[in-house]
Specification:
Elements (H helix, E strand, L loop, with lengths): L1 H19 L1 H12 L3 H29 L1 H21 L3 H10 L1 H10 L6
Length: 117
């Protein structure tokens, strides 16, 4: 149990940092990809909007498989789009990876289920 708590405490801030770190970099990303204001708005909407859907899917998964397994799966799956963001070559791939990186935000929420007394 202590190992799971340590992993949850360490991983939750890292997951949040991976998701929130892109907002301050948007001016650089805008220049790099030549994005319009509408495209930046789509990226921001995708990053936040998908969290609603993720909550609806992950809740039953946590009930079925347990919060620890669900949390680990979210961290592993959420790491892939973070790598994808760094490898994105254009707007579409960046948007898709940003959308999928929302798994990390919810993994921080899911991790709280077994570190909270």
């Amino acid at each position: 149990m202590a190992v799971a708590v340590d992993v949850a405490v360490d991983a939750a801030p890292a997951a949040r940092a991976a998701w929130f770190s892109l907002a301050p970099l948007m001016p650089v990303i805008k220049n790099e990809f030549g994005l319009s204001k509408d495209q930046i708005a789509n990226i921001n909407i995708a990053a936040v909007g998908i969290t609603i859907l993720v909550r609806l899917i992950v809740g039953p998964l946590a009930d079925k498989y347990g919060p620890r397994r669900t949390y680990v799966a979210l961290l592993v799956l959420g790491a892939l789009p973070v790598v994808g963001i760094s490898l994105a070559q254009g707007y579409e791939s960046f948007l898709l990876c940003r959308l999928l990186s929302s798994l990390l935000v919810f993994s921080a929420v899911e991790g709280c289920t077994f570190i909270t007394p």
